[in-house]
Amino acid sequence: MVIGILVACMAAGGTYLLYTAFAFGWRGFGSGRADGVARRDRPGAPPSPLARVRDWLTHAGLADVPLREIAAAVAGSAAACGLVGLVAFGAPLPAAALAMAGAGWPVAVWRARRRAHRAAAQEAWPHIIEEVRLLTSALGRSVPQALFDAGQRAPDPLRPAFEAAQREWMLSTDFDRTVAVLKARLADPTADAACETLLVAYEVGGADLDSRLEALVRDRVVDVQGRKDAVAKQAGVRFARRFVLLVPCGMAFAGMSIGTGRAAYRTSWGQLLVVLAISVVTGCWAWAGVLLRLPDEERVFQ
After folding, report:
1. What are the C-alpha distances in Å from 243 to residues 97, 247, 250, 287?
2. For residues 153 and 128, what is the distance between their CA atoms, to the nearest angstrom?
3. Fewer beta carbons below 10 Å: N end or C end of the chain?
4. What's 42's DSSP letter?
């Protein structure tokens, strides 16, 4: 009887911990809300997985897209690739392997869009910061007005974030909340550093804003130029990576057109070898992408 009660209490406690961890992000046995606040406020605390996913979707331009539409795109891509595999090979295992590989195609497209957005933001931020510096020092604009004026001439991927921040400023006139909206919509390390610098200058004041923004511009220019040089050196390798992906596909279709090649793909060994080949090609493609990935800056002022 006592053992049954202990087991029931342990099961109830475990259920409570699992539910609060997944539903509210609570950790530990203490007050989950207080622990969560302390963890968010602690400098250097790693971002939660939900925050990483939100930043990833923001960079990919999918911040306003419902998750069900993202899941539908993944499922549609998997179904289309599976249908192609079934028509080409006439066997279920290769079709299933192609469907699994095809499910990652929308993710790859969104990752490419994310990299393009991040590159555009990294290249645009030195010009935005320099314009804010000129507006505040030479023309005497206030820090919020200079930020919004510079944001109106920002690249198209960044402009909606500045418009949302300006709406927040017009409604609340709270620059701290305005900066928080801008950082959340941009989800970029350079934007975090620039916004925090402007926030401190707005709240504390001081005559050194011009020199601080100038130093930030120089640092961003050096970083952008270094990334451009690295991407230029990788251009040949990236082209070879795309070209090599077409070679196994061409060999597979050539093998089907020779003699009894199509019937060989339908045998048990043929299906296993096709699945193995698809797995190797997909794995090598993903591994090469990891090796070619440039290191991303970590967000500090989230």
Report:
1. 21, 7, 11, 16
2. 8
3. N
4. S
Report pLDDT digits (tens) over 166-190.
Answer: 999 998 888 899 989 888 888 777 7
Rounded Cα gap, residues 165 and 148, in angstroms: 8
pLDDT of residue 219: 83
Q: Which residues contact 142 (CB under 8 A, 6 or more apart)?
A: 136, 202
| Sequence spans of domains, the chain | 2-45, 59-113+234-292, 117-231
Structure tokens at 181: 């909206």
- Residue of 298, 56, 75, 52 whose CA lies nearest to 189: 298
Q: Closest by alpha carbon to 123, among 231, 239, 211?
A: 231
Compute the distance between CA of residue 70 and CA of residue 72 in angstroms, rounded to an integer. 5
Return the amino acid letter for 170.
M
Return d(Cα 81, Cα 73) in angstroms, integer: 12
